[in-house]
Amino acid sequence: MICNPWFLAALPRVRMPRRLWSQYGRKVRVGGRRVTVEIRNGLWEVSVLGHWLRLGRMYPDLENAHYVQNFRMSKVFFWKFVSDYDIIFRKVVPKRIRDAIPPPKCMAMLLYWLARGSSFRDVGTQFHVSPAVVHKIIHNGVKGLRERLVPRAIRFPEGMELLQVMHDFKNLGGLPCVAGAMDGTFFHILKPSYNGDAYWCYKGFPAISVLAVVDARMIFTYVRSGLHGSVGDAGAFMTSELSSRLQHGQVLGPDPVPHVDESGALVYYPVTQVVQGITIAPYLVADSAFALSNKVMKCYDDKDGLSAVQDDFNYCVIRTRRVVENAFARLKGRWQVVVNNHIYDPEFASSVCQVVCALHNVVETRNCGFREEWLQVEEDLRDRVPDYVTVCGRNMYGNGQLLHRLPMFPLRSCECEKRWRSNVICILNVLYAYICNHKRYS
């Protein structure tokens, strides 16, 4: 049949696109006649998926475990996620690729790459697609999720959400009015050809800097990425939009939160708390790399020794701040593209970082599960335990400076600076007294 001249003449005009989870035929015009051509399935659909479907009949949980292992989400949520965001592949993926590879398979390839951090060639081998097509699908998919998913999934708490976050942090660590835990990490990349030395971080590899704020449930509420790896956490925060909004009172302000109760009446809930005559507004908890201010709180320095009250305060701050370290560990374990990838472009790496943080929020909210074997133990232990703290029972030791790089923003006069420094110390003293008079968390 292969040597038939009619077949050889018709073969270039017969397209046989690969379809995911489907078998069908279509009619094409060959030599003036309409002939039905059966579309064959590729290696992935026949060998891999068919095998899993057969095993799924014997072991109902096996197929769901396959989705969790490869796509980091359950089978039910995977298809719901595809139905919500398959529009990104219908809009941006070229029609030639879209006709051959349907949106569910494109989404599976994107999630598989984010979860494994494999090369485009490895992903193409797994899904029986060429590396060039994988490159287009992943870049267009990341762009689409960056525009559609990230603004919905990563939002700074306001209103009643802020009150709930403060309540969760108080139950977790004992500190009142905590609106988030802030810290930085690195997104590993390959050294760029232009200005590559600037991306070399202090851990000894090229990376982009990532600044993040999380709530008590390890959900990212603010993410900034894309700066050079040589830029520290404090520098990333000082030049961030979040720092500017904090200075101008656009977020974490003292204004009460309006809320309509069940009876329809408008009720105002205060976000500040008065302790021993001092009004405490919402603030963020950070490590010693950040400057102390009335919006950023950190531990006491033990250079001259700590009292029992100061030790309790440090314990509560570290317990509260550990949330962001655990969030980074789960992010790197679930989406291994953060620590293992073949990305040269810092801008594309920044978009990928935003997308994986948004996906982290989505799967954490949906309780899709997390497996301990995903953790990158050797790399993540540095992030899960603070660099400047060693914990032995109830004793904390640090080398950070309490008033390092104080103040955070320019002051108008020396009198204003003295008054501002005094207010910060008063807030700290009130917090120490608050913790001392309440239950000690073990």
UniProtKB/TrEMBL annotation:
Domain DDE Tnp4: 182-361
Any Pfam family hit: DDE_Tnp_4
Domain of life: Eukaryota
Keyword GTP-binding: no
Cofactor(s) the protein requires to work: a divalent metal cation
CC terms in the record's Gene Ontology section: nucleus
Protein's recorded name: DDE Tnp4 domain-containing protein
Organism whose genome encodes this protein: Volvox reticuliferus
